[in-house]
């Protein structure tokens, strides 16, 4: 492997010394007196799908009370394409109630996270997850993560093929280390084998950074294909069959405030390949990034920077060489939106599917809204499957026509279906406080209130039912993909947000920084005149973001490198 | 009795008996008393580490008196020692025996017997007295024909089974043939005065004036009473007040640091402090309102400061029924149902449900003096200097639709803030002390039971004790109730703790308690004990202490492959060797 001459980042040494992700995790988990684990193990445990977190709401009081931080783990389940059987849903529901914080958190990458699992309950929880034929392996860490797939159920055949692809890519790129089984499931200890045997794709030090793959089926771009390291866009022929895949590379969201060398980037379309070549292409992209990626600076280690640095052509050539595949010219495709179609739809096969909005993906029981109970009740009788959407929503999929009334009754009983404004149904917020250690501001706990306040303005302008995409994150890492939304709010500090505008509704264009450090009132005051103008002057079917660009409220962003250029208010036409 | 003869059984030759009879038998009471005093004086002058003379042992100057006490928190023991001092002055030769060490045969040989016994748990004997108590109640108890006895019972009238152990012992001694020479008295928490009066009366009955009167002549060569370890209440300032539970916990456990104006009471690890609480003014106001006494400020102040206004016993019920004349109450007081009706209720319920305008005197009469509450000291003076730390868990519960708050613990939790002053008194406990520095110790203390172990660990760290220390702790939630977590982590790092095992009962669907952890670690546990480790249990008496004991026996049975009986004996042996030590409440 080509090693850079620059100093390797600390994580590289940790991985190298970890004996394929074992580290001292087993010992650390056995220590009952602390809820935490060592610093190095904290890096390693991510590869096993877990993060050590602490309840930030409690930080101030802890040491005064002679207690360490309120540590607990977040567990991220690996669910390729977001498809769960009802039994699997019930299993996750059960562990969330027994060991977690009694919520299920649907993520922006179609998985479920459990929060608040204390160390002494980790193994039990993971064993129960294993019993349900699920795992958390590689849901985080410097490896390929959960593979996303358009869950779109109404094009049943295309979806089935896309889903199968997502699953096989996920399996193919899964770490082979027995550490997971050994540490969490009390599996047999297998002595550290040969590198080529243990991790033929990754090697001892895995990837320089996280790696994300998605599978999209146009016209829906709900997976936000341009936000990921590697994407496959289904090219569907006239019969609804998939003829092959456009390959995208080099997307990513994360950046750091005040560091212009870091930026979000929309992926490039690198070429076209047949279904049979997908695994070879995927593996080649991963290994080129493994060897070419920057292992000295983790803020510059994602594939998007490798592509910026080496150029797309050089990258494509190397992938073709390693994969033994000649990529064709990209085929035409077009996306309409990144959102979900809420409500009932009927698939090609006659089955019915219900997409339910889940506010910020959090399913819990609250007074008057026992949603966790509601989904449990659905899972108890549902015969189809559940699909988690990239927009943090849930699809009750494959309901036979005669089962539909029963589903509707439960949905009504538990209020799972709500009347939503156009803004709210297109909203997403990342987790942020109190669990996320990187959050600079609230997100999931705040966006609902902000939307209520904005709804009042939209209502005043007659825009209550218009689709406008709004996404919020508690820091610039971009977990809710805010730079690909029409209104993006990115936490800067407690109660303060940077406002980004102008992301394209089909997910193809990044937004642009409009104003910094806005507080609640400031956000409303800034957006209100734009809503007013939009209501009066928009073109037919013109999305809010396109209107803002056309009217020169803001400058457009071409791609990553000009993300930080021409920021701030421009001179609007009106 | 006009003519006293030396019994034939006395350990003298026949000639000597005859000679003695000639002198002693005809001596006036004054002469006899002088002799008694003289001989007692010789006895006392013997080196004090000589084993004290057994009733059946060689020449005795004074008439023997056996004083047996059954104690948990030391009150009965203190009274027994006081009685012994007084008896000695009166010319008797007392032998004080902890019921834990009592061989029943001793009782049969005793001529005069005083038993001072406390009741614990819910009408149970103090833990370490349990063995002898069971034997006494059992079929094989010896006959006690001719033994003159008196029983003093200690208890708390707040418990339904008030003084039942004393009562049962009293009845049993009689049934075994003993002769009651003084009626039993059942003491409440303010036991000092009635106990003192009873002791006087008992000694008079057991050693009639003819035998003892002479002591009024100051002929006691004997050592005067030992300097009282008892220092009386002192004031302290709260220098730190921290609720150790997280704000998400459903519990509140206060770490209290007390600073003394001068030296701290001379406490040792294992000792407790009696804390003098005040009542919740809101509760007192409710009570005054119900009794139609709202405007009596002086009474209000007195009730808050010094009367027990929450405890509700059958006695109170009877008195209130008599004062108020409520026929329902009269009927209730005399009926079977009284006990059940009283359980879970407080004085406020009685007066609140059956309101009546009372006089201040009447209301005061329904209460007893407010007793202090004991709290294990959670610090070592070697580490904290002239301070003492306590760990107080706020007792809160609901019954009969009313939120109840334990008097002392909520005085600490709700009203005693940093800078406030509070009265405390040292309550030594030599039965819960550290062993020699090179011995290993195993400490089991869930909840506030962990308090004395903080003192143990501090002490052993500061004194460089080489014995290893192993702590079992438990509570509800790891995240919200891990008391002193950071300190234990430090102790594990610096070696002051060799091991620590924790059990949090509400983190998992199946509740896990300290005894479950003991079971998990049984191999090591038994190995430690085989190496001479001391085993300490502190905290909840109702369930925990029993479960821990049972589990230890099970562990021994399992690891050593012995029968449950043999294992139980092994635990009993640990106890008689004073290596199984309890401080439970
Ligand atoms: C749960 C989730 C947000 C949500 O509300 O759903 C999430 C939550 C977190 N993300 Fe994320 N990310 C989530 C999707 C994303 C996405 C969106 C996507 O992939 O489509 C992005 C932007 C795309 C990208 O990767 O560029 C994203 C970019 C990041 C980054 C920045 C990465 C970068 O290279 O710039 C970090 C920080 C890091 O890796 O250093 C991060 C780190 C985190 C951590 C684990 C914080 C940490 O490292 O300590 C957050 C845990 C919070 C918590 O308490 O649960 N998360 N994160 C999403 C889980 C996805 C999944 O199931 O796998
Ligand atoms: C030697 C010794 C050491 C001790 N050490 C400590 C220590 O370190 N820390 C500590 O916190 N405590 C300790 N205690 C206990 C302490 O002395 C008090 O008993 C305790 O704090 C309660 O006192 P209180 O005045 O708050 O409650 P009280 O007003 O005395 O009320 C307690 C009574 O309330 C009733 N009650 C309590 N809970 C319930 C319930 N759930 N349902 C119905 N009725 C209930 C019971 O009748 C109980 O006796 C110790 C006790 C002893 C004897
Ligand atoms: C946990 C606990 C339980 C008690 N149970 C009873 C009881 O059931 N009946 C009773 O009369 N007194 C009971 N008491 C009161 C004690 O008997 C009383 O405090 C006595 O003075 C203790 O004497 P000792 O120090 O010799 O053990 C109890 C006290 C405590 C702290
Ligand atoms: S965007 Fe930032 S604050 Fe939000 S979950 Fe991701 S890392 Fe945490």
In short:
With 574 residues, chain A is of the alpha+beta class.
Structural class per helix/strand content of chain B? alpha/beta
Give the spatial strand order of the biggest sheet of chain A.
1-2-5-4-13
Q: Tell me the overall shape of chain A.
A: globular
- End-to-end distance of chain B: 48 Å
Mean pLDDT of chain B: 89
Number of contiguous helices of chain A: 17
Amino- and carboxy-terminal Cα gap of chain A: 57 Å
Rounded Rg of chain B: 26 Å
The counted number of beta strands of chain B is 21
Structural class assignment of chain A: alpha+beta
Radius of gyration over C-alpha positions of chain A, nearest whole angstrom: 23 Å
Quick one: biggest sheet of chain A?
5 strands, antiparallel
Mean pLDDT score of chain A, rounded? 94
Kindly list the characteristics that best describe this protein:
heterodimer, A: 574 residues, alpha+beta, 5-stranded antiparallel beta sheet, globular, B: 585 residues, alpha/beta, 6-stranded parallel beta sheet, 6-stranded antiparallel beta sheet, 24 helices, 21 strands, 20% strand, binds siroheme, binds flavin-adenine dinucleotide, binds flavin mononucleotide, binds iron/sulfur cluster
């Amino acid at each position: 492997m080509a090693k850079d001459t620059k100093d390797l980042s600390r994580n590289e040494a940790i991985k190298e010394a970890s004996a394929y992700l074992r580290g001292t995790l087993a010992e650390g988990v056995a220590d009952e007196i602390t809820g935490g684990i060592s610093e190095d193990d904290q890096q390693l445990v991510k590869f096993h799908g877990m993060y050590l977190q602490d309840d930030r709401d409690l930080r101030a009081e802890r040491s005064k009370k002679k207690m360490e931080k309120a540590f607990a783990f977040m567990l991220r389940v690996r669910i390729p394409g977001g498809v769960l059987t009802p039994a699997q849903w019930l299993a996750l529901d059960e562990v969330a109630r027994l060991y977690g914080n009694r919520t299920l958190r649907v993520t922006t990458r179609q998985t479920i996270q459990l929060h608040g699992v204390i160390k002494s309950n980790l193994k039990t929880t993971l064993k129960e997850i294993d019993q349900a034929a699920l795992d958390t392996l590689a849901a985080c860490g410097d490896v390929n993560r959960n593979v996303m797939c358009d869950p779109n159920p109404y094009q049943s055949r295309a979806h089935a093929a896309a889903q199968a692809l997502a699953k096989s890519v996920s399996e193919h790129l899964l770490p082979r280390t027995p550490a997971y089984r050994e540490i969490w499931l009390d599996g047999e200890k297998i002595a550290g084998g040969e590198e080529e045997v243990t991790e033929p794709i990754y090697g001892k030090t895995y990837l320089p950074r996280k790696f994300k793959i998605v599978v999209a089926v146009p016209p829906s771009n709900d997976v936000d294909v341009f936000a990921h390291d590697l994407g496959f866009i289904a090219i569907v022929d006239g019969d609804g069959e998939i003829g092959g895949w456009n390959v995208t590379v080099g997307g990513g969201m994360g950046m750091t405030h005040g560091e212009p060398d870091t930026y979000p980037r929309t992926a490039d379309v690198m070429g076209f390949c047949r279904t049979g070549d997908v695994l070879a292409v995927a593996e080649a992209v991963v290994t080129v990034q493994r060897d070419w990626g920057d292992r000295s600076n983790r803020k510059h280690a994602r594939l998007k920077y490798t592509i910026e640095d080496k150029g797309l052509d050089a990258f494509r050539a190397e992938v073709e060489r390693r994969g033994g595949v000649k990529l064709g010219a990209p085929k035409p495709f077009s996306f309409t939106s990144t959102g979900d179609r809420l409500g009932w739809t009927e698939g090609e096969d006659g089955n019915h599917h219900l997409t339910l909005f889940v506010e910020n993906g959090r399913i819990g029981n609250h007074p008057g809204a026992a949603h966790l109970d509601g989904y449990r009740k659905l899972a108890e009788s549902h015969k189809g499957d559940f699909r988690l959407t990239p927009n943090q929503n849930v699809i009750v999929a494959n309901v036979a026509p005669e089962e539909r009334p029963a589903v509707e009754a439960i949905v009504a009983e538990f209020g799972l279906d709500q009347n939503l404004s156009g803004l709210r149904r297109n909203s997403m917020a990342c987790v942020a406080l109190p669990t996320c250690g990187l959050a600079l501001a609230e997100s999931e706990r705040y966006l609902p209130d902000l939307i209520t306040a904005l709804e009042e303005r939209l209502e005043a302008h007659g825009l209550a039912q218009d689709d406008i995409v709004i996404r919020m994150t508690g820091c610039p890492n971009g977990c809710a993909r805010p730079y690909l939304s029409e209104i993006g709010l990115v936490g800067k500090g407690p109660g303060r947000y940077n406002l980004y505008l102008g992301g394209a509704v089909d997910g193809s264009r990044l937004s642009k920084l409009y104003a910094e450090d806005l507080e609640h009132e400031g956000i409303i005051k800034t957006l209100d005149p734009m809503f007013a103008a939009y209501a009066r002057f928009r073109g037919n079917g013109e999305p809010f973001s396109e209107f803002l660009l056309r009217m020169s409220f803001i400058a457009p962003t071409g791609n990553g490198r000009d993300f930080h250029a021409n920021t701030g208010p421009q001179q609007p036409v009106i | 009795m006009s003519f006293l003869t030396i019994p034939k059984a006395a350990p003298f030759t026949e000639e000597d008996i005859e000679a003695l009879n000639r002198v002693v038998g005809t001596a006036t009471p004054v002469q006899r008393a002088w002799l008694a005093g003289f001989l007692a004086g010789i006895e006392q002058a013997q080196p004090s580490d000589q084993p004290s003379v057994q009733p059946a042992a060689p020449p005795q100057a004074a008439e023997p008196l056996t004083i047996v006490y059954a104690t948990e928190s030391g009150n009965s023991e203190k009274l027994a020692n006081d009685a012994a001092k007084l008896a000695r002055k009166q010319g008797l030769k007392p032998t004080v025996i902890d019921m834990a060490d009592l061989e029943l045969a001793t009782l049969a040989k005793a001529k005069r017997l005083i038993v001072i016994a406390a009741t614990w748990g819910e009408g149970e004997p103090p833990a370490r007295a349990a063995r002898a108590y069971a034997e006494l109640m059992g079929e094989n108890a010896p006959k006690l024909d001719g033994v003159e006895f008196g029983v003093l019972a200690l208890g708390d009238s707040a418990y339904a089974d008030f003084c039942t152990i004393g009562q049962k012992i009293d009845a049993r001694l009689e049934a075994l043939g003993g002769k009651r020479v003084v009626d039993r008295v059942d003491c409440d928490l303010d036991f000092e005065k009635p106990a003192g009066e009873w002791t006087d009366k008992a000694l008079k009955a057991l050693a009639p004036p003819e035998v003892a009167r002479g002591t009024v002549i100051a002929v006691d060569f004997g050592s005067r009473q030992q300097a009282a370890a008892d220092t009386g209440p002192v004031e302290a300032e709260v220098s730190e007040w921290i609720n150790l539970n997280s704000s998400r916990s459903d519990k509140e456990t206060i770490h209290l640091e007390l600073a003394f104006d001068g030296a701290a009471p001379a406490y040792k690890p294992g000792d407790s402090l009696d804390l003098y609480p005040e009542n919740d003014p809101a509760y007192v106001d409710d009570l005054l309102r119900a009794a139609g006494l709202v405007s009596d400020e002086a009474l209000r102040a007195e009730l808050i400061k010094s009367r027990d206004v929450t405890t509700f016993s059958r006695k109170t019920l009877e008195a209130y029924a008599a004062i108020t004349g409520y026929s329902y109450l009269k009927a209730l007081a005399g009926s079977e149902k009284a006990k059940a009706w009283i359980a879970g209720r407080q004085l406020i319920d009685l007066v609140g449900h059956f309101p009546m305008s009372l006089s201040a005197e009447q209301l005061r009469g329904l209460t007893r003096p407010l007793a202090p509450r004991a709290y294990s000291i959670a610090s070592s003076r070697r580490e904290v200097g002239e301070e003492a730390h306590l760990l107080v868990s706020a007792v809160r519960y609901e019954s009969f639709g009313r939120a109840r708050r334990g008097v002392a613990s909520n005085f600490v939790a709700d009203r005693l803030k940093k800078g406030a002053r509070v009265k405390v008194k040292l309550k030594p406990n030599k039965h819960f002390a550290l062993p020699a520095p090179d011995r290993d110790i195993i400490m089991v203390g869930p909840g506030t039971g962990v308090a004395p172990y903080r003192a143990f660990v501090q002490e052993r760290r500061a004194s460089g004790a080489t014995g290893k220390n192993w702590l079992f702790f438990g509570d509800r939630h790891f995240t919200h109730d891990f008391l002193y977590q950071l300190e234990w982590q430090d102790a594990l790092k610096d070696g002051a703790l060799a091991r620590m095992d924790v059990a949090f009962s509400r983190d998992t669907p199946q509740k896990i308690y300290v005894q479950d952890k003991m079971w998990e670690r049984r191999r090591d546990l038994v190995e430690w004990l085989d190496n001479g480790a001391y085993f300490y249990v502190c905290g909840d008496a109702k369930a925990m202490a029993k479960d821990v004991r049972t589990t230890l026996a099970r562990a021994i049975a399992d690891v050593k492959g012995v029968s449950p009986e043999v294992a139980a004996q092994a635990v009993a042996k640990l106890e008689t060797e004073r290596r199984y030590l309890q401080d439970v409440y």
